[in-house]
Design goal:
This protein is an all-beta fold and 385 residues long. It has strands at 6-19, 34-48, 53-64, 72-83, 87-94, 127-136, 139-147, 173-174, 183-193, 196-206, 211-216, 222-228, 230-242, 245-255, 261-272, 281-291, 305-314, 322-330, 336-345, 350-361, 376-384. It has an 18-stranded antiparallel barrel. The chain has a three-stranded mixed beta sheet with strand order 8-12-11, with no helix packed on it.
Length: 385
């Protein structure tokens, strides 16, 4: 019996306002306290063959009033998925997420970061891929062939959140002679054993995180030139669930950018359910971040010896009201980042979100000092259809 295909069209359109309480630190940055933008993200899905075959197309468009590079478009998804009894196959552009920790996603390496969207590294560009998943009783093996490298996006030369110098995105440097055409490879095994969720991965290819080399434009303007090295990275992610506790760890060993180095994030989340005899749940989060890379050869990171402390409140009401607040503190310098993410559904189709990224304490001699004036509060009103 032939089963007809089925179409589904959904998506979202939103208006966003970023408010910068402080004036920019650098004179060549746009001097504005309010930066509006709009984005549109539709999703078209076609399923057939008893839902064993599915084509998904999900473009993304943003128009920003002040950052020309944040005005951009991307294909987040454009792929065909075929599902069999014990395997499935993805061909095309897709997004894959690996990891369990809250404050930093060390093992999540397939997709490139869309840095103009936010500084939390949560937004990802679509990645061309061939992805075969073999589903067995002893776990799932996922094999990836990744043709076509995506360069990281960065704010414009005069934009807020730019950093000390403009990023020369037009002339990146690559270790591979093939440049952005280098084909990358990855494999991951994942399994659930009782209360344990386990993932082990290996990646070989072009690093998603560039090293920044100093450079100069013909007009004398100092710039950072992104250089993308070839790396090999082994990763492990574990989550142990017991009663109200979630114990989490991610760890990597990476080679190819100077001496091989080890990095990890480890911590827990503890949840109090139905607090004060209500339907609300309150969670407490704590994680430690360590990174042993040599900054003379490897990409820069602020997360080398840091503690993350946070709390998650879910009211579990009809409006799906939720709040996540936390801080990341550098134990070496005392630099502090505060963030808040709150959301509430206003109607069946409208949702209000408020996010903040603020730097209340940053020493003058630290790299984070270049960004401290660019703390912001973002208000977003989204219509889902």
């Amino acid at each position: 019996m032939t089963v007809a295909g089925q179409w589904d069209v959904s998506g979202s359109v939103a208006g966003e306002l970023r408010t910068f309480p402080q004036q920019p630190r650098f004179s060549d940055q746009t001097n504005t306290n309010f930066s509006p933008s709009v984005f549109f993200q539709p999703e078209v899905v076609y399923e057939w063959n008893g839902r064993r075959d599915r084509v998904t197309i999900e473009p993304f468009f943003r128009v920003d009033a002040h950052d020309d590079r944040r005005t951009h478009a991307d294909l987040r998804e454009a792929h065909w998925l075929h599902q069999a009894d014990d395997w499935d196959l993805v061909l095309g552009i897709s997004k894959v997420f690996w990891g369990v920790t809250e404050s930093r996603h060390l093992v999540d390496i397939i997709n490139q970061t869309d840095q103009v969207e936010d500084i939390d590294n949560e937004d990802r560009l679509g990645q061309p891929m061939i992805n075969l998943n073999l589903i067995r009783d002893w776990g799932t093996v996922s094999v990836f062939v990744l043709p076509g490298f995506r360069e990281r996006t960065f704010p414009d030369d005069d934009a807020r959140l730019r950093g000390p110098f403009p990023i020369e995105v037009a002339h990146p440097s690559f270790e591979s002679d093939a440049g952005a055409a280098h084909v990358d490879y990855a494999v991951r095994w994942s399994h659930v054993l009782g209360e344990w969720d386990i993932g082990a991965s290996y990646f070989y290819g072009t690093s998603r995180q560039p090293v920044f080399l100093p450079g100069m434009r013909p007009d004398g303007q100092m710039v950072f030139i992104p250089r993308y090295d070839l790396i090999h990275q082994s990763g492990l992610d574990l989550q142990y669930t017991t009663d109200a506790w979630l114990w989490k760890v991610e760890a990597i060993v990476r080679g190819g950018q100077g001496n091989p180095f080890f990095a990890t994030v480890a911590g827990f989340e503890y949840t109090l359910y139905q607090i004060v005899q209500s339907s609300a749940d309150l969670g407490f989060l704590a994680e430690y971040q360590y990174d042993g890379r040599d900054l003379n050869d490897a990409p820069f990171t602020l997360n080398d010896n840091d503690v993350f402390l946070g709390s998650r409140l879910s009211l579990n009401d009809e409006q799906d009201t939720a709040l996540l607040a936390g801080t990341i503190i550098d134990l070496s310098t005392g630099a502090t980042l505060l963030f808040v993410e709150a959301e509430r559904r206003l109607t069946d189709h409208w949702k209000l979100e408020i996010e903040s990224r603020l730097f209340p304490h940053v020493p003058d001699d630290g790299f984070a000092a270049f960004f401290r004036n660019d703390g912001f509060i973002a208000t977003r009103l989204t219509h889902h259809f």
